[in-house]
Structures are given as structure tokens and as C-alpha cells.
Amino acid sequence: MIHWRSFRSLSIRHKLLALGLLPLLLALPLLAVILMVWGDSALDALLITKIRSDLGVANGYFDRVQAEVGASTLAVAQSHALVDAVQRDDRSAVARLLVLAREQHALEFLDLLPPNASAINAAEHAGGEGLARVLLLEGAQFERFAPDLAARVPVKLVPTRNAAPSERTDEDRAMVMLALAPVRGLDGRPLGLLRGGVLLNRNLAFIDHINEIVYPAGSLPFGSQGTATLFLDDVRISTNVRLFGGDGARAIGTRVSQAVRDAVLGRGDTWLGRAFVVNDWYVSAYQPLTNPAGRRIGMLYVGFLDSPFQQVKISLLVGMGAVMLLLMALAMMLALAWTRRIFVPIERMTDTMQAVVGRFGVAFVSVVVTVSTFGTLIGIMLTAPRVFFAMAEEGLFFKAMARVHPTYRTPYVAISLAALLGIAFVLTRTFEQLSDTFVLSIWPFYGLAVAGLYRLRRRPDLPRPYKVPGYPVLPAVFIAGVAYLVGNALITDPLWTSVTFAIVLAGIPVYYVFFGPRT
């Protein structure tokens, strides 16, 4: 109630200013907030779409390497040279062939098991012939058949921010891509079981190649950096993420954040979003890795540094905010200018009336003027659009103006045109200019209508239900008055008077171009 009384006590000038600026002060900040929220969510959606695509590329390469390990192991097991060497029990030849095949097929280990181990290993690994699977092996078990790779297996855990609490200090298991393929004689008799694969622990060449495929040079804008990682459980065993920025050591032994661990290893979800990686935030994608039994044993990760995109996002949002503030300032300046055009003549009229009839008289006249204004406005809105409507029905105006609303049965197109023209005039002209424009545009036609009396008087055959008093002097005086108004306007304000007449006279070419008779 206090605020309403304060508003009522304001001057007309301040009331008009408040009414003019209130929509700007509410609408533009709300629009700015909407644009900022939408822009933030839209950029996040684009980043999630990109990281989903990146994970698809990395997973595709991982599957291809896995297939190549299986195909290579099967090809070696089926080679005639190996089968012949095994049948001849030539162990030196078998060793030479396995070394050559391991180098040729880029396998890190390749050994031949005795035939009585075939069923046991096939049942244990459930891999199938020539199909590679991702497995976890105890360090001692792996060392027995690949002693030269055993040094890469142990990983010392590094305390990591946001990781799940754990008392472990070391990870001594080996994650391998392992394929089993039987070696059979010509008669189909099993001669042995070939075991081949690669060790994923500290396999830097493998993880760097994934990173190069997913994030080639120049693929990330704004200085962001791409990363890739293989996890054994929640421990990084192969990664190009750095501990202390770009020049630090690789973050092998660090652990994934607890939120990601719970989602990916705990629930089997694919993580797509921002995640804390070692010491910074990344737009990240994590996918669980499973063994043949379906147990989740690790994760494949790709991601890129989030801070450059956040800086760009902040810059864009700040820029949008600055533009909105600038637009708001310009809109307020225009609103002040337009409002001033309205309240200056109103204040003059108010001051004049107050000096003549006092405060009570001002209030009385204000009520009368308000009622008269709204009554005139209602009358004009009811009649003026229907002039457009009638002209359109007679083919003298655009056909769209003759459309009638199916429910309310009103000429809604003509009403809309009249409203738009009114708004345009109010926003571009002052009160005096609007009144002058009205007089100059309508009174010449009043003069023409009166001048028509002289022509009609020459028609004795026409009925005369009403005779003009003072004819022919009184019509001549009226016509002279109209001529004086028009001539005075041309002298005192030639520019706007010419514009007004140009608008009126523009109806002549418009009529002949669009609605005149066709020959």
C-alpha cells in the first residue's frame, strides 16, 4: 500500500517514465537470463555429443586391436610351418617361428601350451578359437609365460583427489588382451594350444595411438588437450594424462574419482560429462571393460580439458550480457525520448488548466478528457478498420483486408493493420505532430466535399432535401479556411507537411497499380 501511495504522489512525468521503463527493466534482464541459461546448456550438449563421438572412435580402435590379436594368433596356429615343426617336435624351429610371428603380428607374448592344457584353458577363459578377450591375471601367473614383460605389471598407487577411500598401495595384476587358438595336425588331432596377446599395463604406445586417432593435431580448439586412459579396476595403468601439467610424468597409478567409479564399475553405466581427472576438470567419457564372464574389470577413457571451453563459455555469456546491457541502455534512451515527447505537451496542458480552473477543475477536465479519449478510441477502432474492410470487399484494397474471423465475425486483418499503423505513428511522432498530421490528412477532403456543393448545384434534376444556409458565401468561407490551414502548415513545417501529403497522395499510384481498371 505504501508503494502504491508513493506512485500516486509522483508527477505525471515520473509516472509516464515509470510506465515506459518498467517493461524494459523486466523484459530485457529476463531475456538475458534465458539466453544465458540456454547458451550454457546448448554448449554443454555440444560437448557431450563430441565426447560421445570420441568414445565411439576409441572403442572402435580398441575392438579392432582385440580382433587383430585373435586373428593373428589363429593365423599363426594354423600356419603350415608351425604345424610341421610341432609334429617333428623341433623345439628350436618352434621357438624361431614364434619369435618371428610375434614380431610380424605385433604380439607382445606368444607361446605354445601342451595339448593336455587345451580343454582346461578353453574352459577357464571361455574365449573360443581365435577370439581375444580382456582378462585379469595375477602377476605371478603372468610372469610364468611372459617373464620379460613382468616388470611392467606392478603399479604403485598414487594418492588421488576425489578417489574412493582405499588402503591398497599397489596394483600387481596384469590386464591383457589374450587369445587362444588350437594347433592341429593334418588329421585334426590337437598338437597344442597357442596363446598370444598383448599386455595393457604401461602399454604407452597403445594408449598414445588411441589418443592420436581420437585427437589428431589441431582437432581441439581453444588450446584444449585430448587424453586417453586404460584402467584396471579404478587404477590408471596406461595413460597420457600428466601429473603436473603438460611436462609432468604420466599419471600411472592414480585413480578415478569415486563418482565415476560408482557409475561405471558399480552400475555398468557409460559416463558422459565433466569429471575430475587427477588435477583438473575434463569433458570425459568412461566405458566399462568386461571379462568373458561379464564382470567389470576396468575402463576405457577419453576426454579433453574442460577449462578452455569454460573460459570461452564465460566470455560468450559475458559478451551476451554486455550486448543486452547495451541494448537495454539504448532502449531506455529511446523510451525516455519517446516518453518526453508525450509528457511535455501533457504537462503544458495540465499547467494551463490548473492556472485557469484550479486543481478541482483539472481533475474534472482530466476525467472528461479520459472518457472522451477512450470513447473516441473505441469509435475509431470500430469504424476505421471497417473502412479497409469495405474497400477490400469492393475490390479497392487488398483482399486480405476483407477476411472475417471465423469465431468472432470481425475483420481481424483490417483491425490488426489499423493497430499496427497506430503503434507506428505513436512511436515515431510527437503529440503535436500526430494532431497536425490528422488535421492535414483529413481536412482537405472536408474542403473537397464542401466544394462538391457547387458542382451539385448545377444539377437541377437532383433532389434537395436540405439547403445550405448562406450559400454560396458560407461554403466559400469554409474552403478558404481549409486552404489557410494547409498553406500555413506548408510554410511553418514544410517537411512533415510534405510527408503527410506524400502519404495521402501515394494512394493514387497504389490504386492504379493494384486496383485500377485492367485494359
How would you describe this protein?
The chain folds into two domains: 53-305, 2-Layer Sandwich (Beta-Lactamase), CATH 3.30.450; 313-515, no CATH class. It is 58% helix and 15% strand. The protein has helices at residues 2-8, 12-77, 80-87, 91-104, 118-125, 139-145, 204-214, 258-266, 307-393, 412-428, 431-456, 473-492, 494-505, 507-515, and strands spanning 109-113, 132-138, 155-156, 170-171, 173-184, 190-199, 226-232, 235-239, 271-277, 280-290, 296-305. The strands form three sheets. It has a five-stranded antiparallel beta sheet with strand order 8-7-11-10-9, sandwiched between helices. A four-stranded antiparallel beta sheet has the order 1-6-5-2, sandwiched between helices. A hairpin with a 5-residue loop joins strand 5 (173-184) and strand 6. The longest helix is centred in the C-terminal third of the chain and has 87 residues, at 307-393. The two termini are 71 Å apart.
In short:
The protein has 519 residues and is an alpha+beta fold.
Summarize the helices and strands and which ones pair or pack.
Blueprint: H1 2-8, H2 12-77, H3 80-87, H4 91-104, E1 109-113, H5 118-125, E2 132-138, H6 139-145, E3 155-156, E4 170-171, E5 173-184, E6 190-199, H7 204-214, E7 226-232, E8 235-239, H8 258-266, E9 271-277, E10 280-290, E11 296-305, H9 307-393, H10 412-428, H11 431-456, H12 473-492, H13 494-505, H14 507-515
Antiparallel strand pairs: 1-6, 2-5, 3-4, 5-6, 7-8, 7-11, 9-10, 10-11
Helix pairs in contact: 2-7, 2-9, 3-4, 9-10, 11-12, 11-13, 12-13
